[in-house]
């Protein structure tokens, strides 16, 4: 959407819930085939779903939350040392929103590099291990979901190549509650924590910590409030996956409204095409009935376009950047 300046009302809604906790969920089993069909249906309908996934224990989630409280308590000057060679992967801050990013968060040494950016003398062994352990669990879910999607579209022979050409970014977010004098209006721009956008990457896995706020736009352009349960997360399609699948699944618009008088923390694990990798639909997805929708592109070029004035203003950056 081009603007959130007049925020339409949103309604509560239950996204499809898909169970990924079952240890017998393995490729080739009947359970796998059933879950795969559910994933395909949910993604076609909403571009996202709620995954119940107990491999992230309540204890681990609590440690992640406490680590985030400590990290965001640091002085702004310290948080600004969280820089990355990749654009927009480091510390970001605007209005109610702040975030810190860990590149390659599935690699313990890289997470150590992150804590050493903040505490150059000693890093933080416990925060590094917590964030790395959390990422490792989420990678298992990300890989299962991507394998299911590729099987479902008959392109599973590319799965290893696909997985080898992506990396992970873990982003931690803090949304500060808006000041008290905004009491009169239920929905207004001052409560906007993150403006409406689609994610640019492959798959995003979102966790929130007690406080709601995420909203997703349905195909008929209604905002729905997402309320994941304690032990679940939201799995969402990004623009790069939409392009890879020749537009067969769309990436949903979503935003964050800070409606409660509480600080909201969330995390996002993004699977991202590595630098230099060209995102292109496999030939199996191109035929007379499904002509090519997007020209092949490099992920960083797309992200750069999104951060130009034209990219920011357009309704759909993916279409503006590379639709044929
Ligand atoms: O905080 C959230 O729940 C959503 C974050 C998000 O959409 C993003 O980082 O792209
Ligand atoms: Fe997002």
From TrEMBL:
Keywords: Dioxygenase, Iron, Metal-binding, Oxidoreductase. Residues 165-273 form the Fe2OG dioxygenase domain. It comes from the Eukaryota. InterPro entries: DIOX_N (IPR026992), IPNS-like_FE2OG_OXY (IPR044861), IPNS-like_sf (IPR027443), Iron_ascorbate_oxido_reductase (IPR050231), Oxoglu/Fe-dep_dioxygenase_dom (IPR005123). The keyword Isomerase does not apply. Probable 2-oxoglutarate-dependent dioxygenase that may be involved in glucosinolates biosynthesis. May play a role in the production of aliphatic glucosinolates. This is Fe2OG dioxygenase domain-containing protein. It comes from Eutrema salsugineum. The lineage of its organism: Eukaryota, Viridiplantae, Streptophyta, Embryophyta, Tracheophyta.
């Amino acid at each position: 959407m081009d603007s959130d300046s007049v925020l339409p009302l949103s309604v509560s809604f239950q996204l499809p819930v898909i169970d990924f906790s079952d240890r017998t969920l393995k490729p080739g089993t009947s359970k796998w085939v059933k879950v795969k069909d559910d994933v395909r249906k949910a993604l076609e309908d909403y571009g996202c779903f709620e995954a119940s996934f107990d491999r992230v224990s309540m204890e681990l989630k609590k440690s992640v939350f406490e680590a985030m409280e400590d990290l965001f308590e640091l002085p702004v000057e310290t948080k600004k040392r969280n820089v990355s060679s990749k654009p927009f992967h480091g510390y970001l801050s605007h209005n109610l929103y702040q975030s810190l990013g860990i590149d390659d968060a599935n690699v313990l040494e890289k997470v150590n590099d992150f804590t050493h950016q903040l505490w150059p003398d000693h890093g933080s062994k416990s925060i590094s291990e917590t964030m790395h352990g959390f990422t490792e669990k989420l990678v298992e879910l990300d890989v299962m979901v991507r394998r299911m999607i590729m099987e479902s579209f008959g392109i599973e022979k590319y799965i290893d190549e696909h997985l080898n050409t992506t990396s992970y970014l873990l982003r931690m977010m803090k949304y500060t509650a808006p000041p008290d004098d905004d009491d009169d209006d239920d929905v207004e721009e001052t409560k906007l924590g993150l403006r409406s956008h689609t994610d640019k990457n492959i798959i995003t896995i979102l966790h929130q910590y007690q406080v709601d706020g995420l909203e997703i736009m349905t195909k008929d352009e209604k905002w729905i409030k997402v309320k994941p349960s304690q032990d679940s997360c939201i799995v969402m399609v990004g623009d790069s996956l939409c392009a890879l699948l020749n537009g067969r699944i769309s990436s949903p618009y979503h935003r964050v409204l800070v409606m409660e008088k509480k600080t909201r923390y969330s995390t996002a694990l993004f699977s991202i095409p590595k630098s230099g990798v060209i995102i292109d639909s496999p030939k199996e997805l191109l035929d007379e009935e499904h002509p090519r929708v997007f020209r092949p592109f490099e992920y960083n070029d797309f992200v750069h376009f999104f951060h130009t004035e034209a990219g920011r203003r357009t309704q759909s950056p993916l279409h503006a950047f590379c639709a044929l």
